[in-house]
Amino acid sequence: MSENKQTVVALVENKPGVLNRVASLFRRRNYNVDSLTVGRTHKAHVSRMTIVIDVERNDVRQIVENLKKLVNVIDVKYLSNEPHISRDLALVKVRTENADAYNHVTEVCERYPARIVDMGHEVTIVEVTASSAVVETVIDQLRPIGIVEMVRTGVVAMGRGTRIQDTQYEPVNVRGDQSNGSNGVLI
Amino acid sequence: MLLSGSEIVMECLLREGVDVMFGYPGGAILPTYDAMTKYPQIHHVLVRHEQGASHMADGYARATGKVGVCIATSGPGATNLVTGLATAMMDSVPVVAITGQVPRPAIGTDAFQETDVTGVTLPVTKHNYLVSDIHELAYTIKEAFHVARSGRQGPVLIDIPKDIQNEKIDFVYPEYDVVLPGYQPNLVADAEDVAAACRLINEAERPLILAGHGILMSGATTQLRELAERGQIPVTLTLLGKGGLPEDHPLSLGMMGMHGTATSNNAIQNADLLIALGMRFDDRVTGNLKTYAPNAKKIHVDIDPSELNKNVKVDVGIAGDLRTVIDQLLPGVEAGAHQAWMGQIREWQEDCDERDILKTYNGEGMLAAQVINDLWHHTGGEALTVTDVGQHQMIEAQYYPHRRPSTMLTSGGLGTMGFGFPAAIGAKFGKPEEEVWAIVGDGGFQMTMCELATAVQERINVNIAIINNGFLGMVRQWQEMFYEERYHATPMVSPDFCKLAEAFGIPAMRVTNREQVAESVEFARSVDGPVLIEYVVQKEDIVYPMVPTGADLDKMIRRPKPGEVQTV
After folding, report:
1. Does A24 sit within 8 Å of B123, measured CB to CB?
2. Per the domain annotation, does A166 fall within a domain?
3. Is A177 among the domain residues?
4. Range(s) of chain B covered by CATH 3.40.50.1220
5. I need a surface site. Which of A31, A88, A148, B328 has the fewest CB within 10 A?
6. Does residue A181 belong to any structural domain of this protein?
7. Could you tell me which residues come within 8 angstroms of residue B515 by beta carbon, excluding any fewer than 6 positions away?
8. Which of A71, A73, A183 sits opposite B176 (nearest CB)?
9. Residue B555 among the catalytic residues
10. Are residues A13 and A76 both part of a single domain?
11. What SS3 class is residue B530?
């Protein structure tokens, strides 16, 4: 990954419209997003976003502070600063009508963390899961054979070891019933 | 108790201490308007255009420090609020807007008067909500008020589908505190930063305080004064910071920036320390960032951490509420003198005095500066003024010095023409004991003058001073200075404002010479209800000094001294 790609991880409330708020922030502040992935966590009310941004290291603080200002954002961490694992996944469909092409694909799969997940008479789908840099390399290796279709998930990342990014936050029970409604008053 | 969604809205507003709301009814908000009849404690002001409602809520909030509330229907009602929300957003004003939405089953079907209001208002609100479950309604309203008035304050919108307004539930008010994970509105400065800031302040030879809206928002005027007096540090104010330090205070240098005092701008460029308190280094106050305050170390205190190092790189950045942070700083600040620095500042001030148009003008016709300075004189400098946007706004900032906080309300960040008059109505509702003057131009007034009918219906005692120069004056000034005098789309034909007022049943007076200004103030004071005074002023006046866009802050175009020739 180049010097100017910074990885930020945000824990957000799992509510409608939150992705829109984050995307809107990046657009109106004119930040250049390389990839943004979002998915659930082990807690139903918390989603996690991994955002790779094309900015100078010095400008990341501004972005982090602006993300924190969004009411639905629970916690933001600048991950490029610390040891972390990052993974990108690509599905690459290549033309493998002749044996040479097919052999080239199997060779790539032996050498890199890639595997064949679908095979037909004309085309083969290769899945590669690795850091973005390795994914780029695999794509470059497959390019000469003839890529006909490709998709990438964008980067997901996590701090190594005991660097745990989690939240103790539990959402308020708005129905105000037994579970925490005891301090509500009937009128 | 079984309550409808509409009644829950009203119950929640009561609990938030709302006593007035500004709005306009329509289909999707009708259930809530019907519920209002059961809650006479909350006065509803019927506006003539929803933009007026949002500015009134804004004016109310700026004048009182409380949350202003406006309400509108779905679709066009809601979109008409947008300018007012953007105005409040840019100036960090706590406003809650409530809008009706089409019933839930109709959302997304392009129903009559349907607009994606949370989508439209996303970038111009601090936060917004589309209520999707009546059980969330009360908590959402509580959270909305909390978000609007905490941390860096701002506008919040709540969009409520009509079927939720009609639905009934056994209502339980959420007495428990709002829980917002990750939302840290009240940060406290850490001791290390405080010590570093104090060290810079005590070492500085030419320090300068730049005080902004944050001083007023956090109620830190006493702390600011103590800091300035103890360190003998001169203070320059942003437009929205006016009233943060009494402008007749010996340490006050007046406003900074594009049309600020030359003294302030010279001081910024020559200072060795800037202490920026609750201001955000907007381009209108910095000029060219590359040459901005080149010799100064910088301390920046703001409640919003994302403001630190945004435009200007600082040596010490402290995120926190100003009242708390200045209290933290004070014990570490030594008594200062800075005699040489103050001597230099007095020299700049004397030069400004020599150029003052009030002392040098002997031409035909009244100048806006004369009118506004006379208004200051005849109101004892104690009026609550609300300006519109343009030349009169800058002249108000220069020639109506304010002593008290929140007595000069103006759209600074967004520069919203049409703001002044409706915001003045809102301010008067919040501060009925104040003498409220809307000081507006002939252009901006015509953008929202439909609210004259609102003022009459409410018998609200607002004095309207129209500074009429027959031009969109500030744009004309730019055309004169930077577009070789091509006055395109700036000469303006206006109605006879006095006859217009008469049609609304509003007493009015036209003032064409300076001798009448005192009389006009007397006249305005004699009228119980709205009154309109038209001041016909010199058509081609210019606001000096002026820092052209992007120029160095001290490269101001100055008003020539008597005998000097202007070179632009």
Report:
1. yes
2. no
3. no
4. 191-348
5. A148
6. no
7. none
8. A183
9. no
10. yes
11. coil
What average pLDDT does the segment B439-466 reach?
Answer: 98
Q: Are the beta carbons of B182 and A68 separated by less than 8 Å?
A: yes
pLDDT in tens, A20-63: 999 999 999 999 899 999 999 999 999 999 999 998 888 899 99
Q: Which chain A residues have a beta carbon less than 8 Å from that of B157?
A: none
Choices 3.30.1330.130, 3.40.50.1220, 3.40.50.880, 3.40.50.620: CATH for B191-348? 3.40.50.1220
Q: Do A43 and A95 have their domain in common?
A: no
Helical pair B451-458 and B420-430, crossing angle rounded to 10 deg: 20
Same domain, A69 and A126: no
Question: Would you call B471 a catalytic residue per the annotation?
Answer: no
**Catalytic site residue from B38, B41, B112, B539:** B112
Strands B20-23 vs B68-72: parallel, antiparallel or unpaired: parallel
pLDDT bucket at B412, cuts 50 / 70 / 90: very high
- CATH 3.40.50.970 segments of chain B: 2-170, 356-536
- State the pLDDT at residue B321: 95
From the list B59, B4, B64, the residue with the least C-alpha distance to B36 is B4
Please, is B565 exposed, middle or buried when counting C-beta atoms within 10 Å of its C-beta (0-12, 13-18, 19+)?
A: exposed
**Which residues of B are less than 8 Å from A11 in CB distance?**
182
Chain B nearest-CA distance from A156, in A, is 21
B508-523 burial: b if 16+ Cβ within 10 Å, else e: bbbbeeeebbeebbeb
Q: Which residues in chain A are closer than 8 Å to B306, comparing Cβ atoms? A: 62, 65-66, 68-69
Closest-CA distance of chain A to residue B482, Å: 29
For residues B374 and A176, the model is more confident at: B374
The DSSP string of B57-75 is HHHHHHHHSSPEEEEE-TT
Residues of B in contact with A183 (CB under 8 A): 175-176
Question: What kind of fold does domain B356-536 have according to CATH?
Answer: Rossmann fold (3.40.50)
User: Which H helix or E strand runs over B199?
Assistant: helix B191-203
Nearest to A28 among B123, B176, B304 (CB): B123
The answer to whether residues A77 and A34 belong to one domain is: yes
Distance from chain centroid for Cα B217: 11
- Token couple for B264: 């302030």
Catalytic residue (choose from B217, B366, B474, B546) = B474
pLDDT in tens, A125-164: 999 999 999 999 999 999 999 999 999 999 999 999 988 8
Name the residue of chain B whose CA is nearest to A60's CA.
B306
Answer yes or no: is A176 within a domain.
no
Domain that holds residue A16: 5-81
Domain-terminating residue out of A66, A81, A96: A81
Domain boundary among A17, A49, A81: A81
Contact B309 A13 (CB under 8 A): no
A-B contacts (CB, under 8 Å): 83
Residues A70 and A26 in one domain: yes
The vertex-B462 CA angle with B410 and B21, nearest 5°, equals 75
The pLDDT tens digits for A74-123 are: 999 999 989 999 999 999 999 999 999 999 999 999 999 999 999 998 99
Enumerate chain A positions whose Cβ falls within 8 A of a Cβ in B: 11, 13, 16-17, 20-21, 24, 28, 61-62, 65-66, 68-71, 73-76, 167, 169, 171-172, 174-176, 180-181, 183-187
Q: What is the CATH number of the domain that holds A36?
A: 3.30.70.260
Partner residue opposite A174 with nearest CB, options B136, B171, B184: B136
Q: How many domains does chain A have?
A: 2
Of all residues in chain B, the percent with pLDDT exceeding 90 is: 94
Whether residues A101 and A61 share a domain: the answer is no
- Same structural domain for residues A20 and A77? yes
CATH 3.40.50.970 for the B2-170 domain, yes or no: yes
Q: What is the CATH number of the domain that holds A144?
A: 3.30.70.1150
Does A175 have pLDDT greater than 90? no
ipTM, interface predicted TM-score of the complex? 0.90
Residues of A within 8 A of B1 (CB-CB) are: 186-187
Out of B1, B147, B179, the one facing A186 most closely (by C-beta) is B1
Report the alpha-carbon distance of residue B498 to residue B493 in Å, rounded. 14
Q: Is position B112 annotated as part of the catalytic site?
A: yes
CB atoms within 10 A of CB B196: 16
